[in-house]
Request: fold
Amino acid sequence: MKLYEKLAKDIEELIENGVFRPGERLPSIRQTSQHHRLSITTVVHAFLLLESKGVIESHPQSGYFVRVPPQSANGKVQQELRTSQPLAISSQVDVSHLVLSTLRSITNDAVPLGSPYPDPSLFPSEKINRYAYGITRRQTKWGVTDALPPGHPDLIRQIARRYLENGSAIDPNEIVVTVGATEAINLCLQAVGKAGDIVAVESPTFYAMLHAIERMGMRAIEVATHPREGIDLAALEEILDQHEIAACMVMPNFQNPLGFQMPDEKKRALVELITRRQVPVIENDVYNELYFGDAHPTSLKSYDTEGLVLHCASFSKSLTSAYRIGWAMPGRYRDQVEKLKFLNTLTTPTIPQLAIAEYLEHDGYEHHLRHIRKIYAQQANIMRAAVTRFFPEGTQTSEPKGGYVLWVELPSQVNSMKLYELALQAGITIGPGYMFSATNGYSNFIRLNYSYPWSASIEDALRTIGKLASDCIRQAERAVAARARENYNT
Reply:
């Protein structure tokens, strides 16, 4: 830890312990420098770090003060996001066109707050590429049979070892290597259902899940979801009573876009529920390595005793997005998934499999993960503080426990598609809430990516989005006033 980071940590702990209270002035930079025997530059960096995290704020000509928590109009501290309340109706899914158009807008010239991908500069790409180059030098003849399902034994062995290191003893024979988690999800859904079937999903849900449902010609039914604990089990059970559900699709760890980690007792209860009903559940666990806490999270798979959990994961969010290597552990549907893998894409390329396997065996994967977890956790706090600082009153955010995305609820007058278009004109991308629902819900929500290093351009972008959102509110209020005058005059 650098000196300025330690000083910032010490001051933050004093604030948390009530030594310095909200609104109180901190000792001056010079006083702090003298008391701690640190350079003024070190103290300035520490204060700037605390300010970027929203812990303190500067008052011109007066110094630094402990930031007062944002308050609503009635003087109470703003509450957390509410549990979603989607309509319990099955719907056709058609979000792929919107998602594709938003992804195309993410260019090198735009501030990538709307990107679904992590910052690639944090990945050990050069090391993995060197392994790939060495593999091609050692073996120049490759055949299709080298990459047939279920995947290369070296990679499967390393995946199984990684689960064991994280506290889960899994059967390596269950693993089927895929082209990213997206293919794993698609294969698993294809194994358990058919066109016209109904699939239960969280609300909001990650649009890749909706893509799989759309691709299969299935229908989605959205289930109420708590912003900190995940899918509402009572609501899910009621839906299971009223509809014939082919499968459930969930992200229990650091869900995109909400970022929650479902409590262990709730994970166990969910598996017990689907086991009683004999309904398969597809578990998207792509963010499981990106936790902010002290221990690796459990998975639904770890509570499954009857093979009803089809577990999907990948290295794309934690190690490299360029190689597109994922896997499925489909339980009782393992043979169907392996067959579908062969029928759909035949193989997963061998060299990326071997390059990742060699990296996992010889390099410091855990050291790399600790590094990016620390960065993401810090930047999540910075992003939340900046949103609170720059966005209109009444804005609320999720509280991510892992991953790298933040879910933001704006005042109801803000239309996220309009805000997306305005932000794009300003060279900024955001994720409009419409993408995360099959029923055009979340019209006043956006998703933000905080994996990129905090910088002046990102801070300016958030300030701009906040201003644009405020402009949208004023325009909506003027429109309401104009309609009221019209009605009065008529």
User: Anything to note?
Assistant: DSSP finds 15 helices and 15 strands in the chain. Residues 418 and 440 are 14 Å apart (CA to CA). Confidence is low (pLDDT under 50) at residues 72-79. The two ends are 69 Å apart (CA to CA).
